[in-house]
């Protein structure tokens, strides 16, 4: 139960951070309160799972956003543009006025890598701590 508690607290903080400009603030506050109460009531022995939850929850949302952007890309485009690059030319078929190509923000990819690294650090913390005890 302690592992689940810390994972949920970390997940709330992670979701709160990626959604801070819309609905994330209450989740961030709840996660921080759970973290403080967790230190006082549960202890920090299972706190490694907070890092896993903190990394996995945002990584799942960012992965879903990236996958949906790739699937929604117009096949007549030369490719999916990463970041703000507008390289490549697209020729329009007769009678077409415009084509909407998918643009995936480069910051999504960077944030996905960062959150995945945080989750892996929690897993490795548990693995190395398990070997020493």
């Amino acid at each position: 139960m302690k592992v689940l508690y810390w994972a949920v607290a970390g997940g709330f903080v992670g979701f709160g951070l990626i959604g801070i400009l819309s609905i994330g603030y209450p989740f961030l506050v709840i996660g921080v309160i759970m973290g403080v109460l967790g230190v006082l009531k549960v202890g920090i022995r299972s706190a490694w799972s907070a890092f896993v939850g903190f990394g996995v929850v945002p990584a799942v949302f960012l992965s879903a956003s990236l996958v949906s952007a790739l699937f929604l890309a117009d096949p007549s485009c030369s490719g999916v543009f990463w970041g703000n690059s507008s390289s490549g030319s697209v020729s329009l078929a007769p009678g077409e006025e415009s084509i909407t190509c998918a643009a995936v923000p480069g910051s999504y990819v960077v944030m996905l890598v960062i959150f995945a690294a945080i989750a892996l650090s929690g897993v490795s913390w548990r693995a190395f701590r398990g070997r020493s005890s």
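The radius of gyration is 20 Å. The beta strands are 81-82, 103-104.
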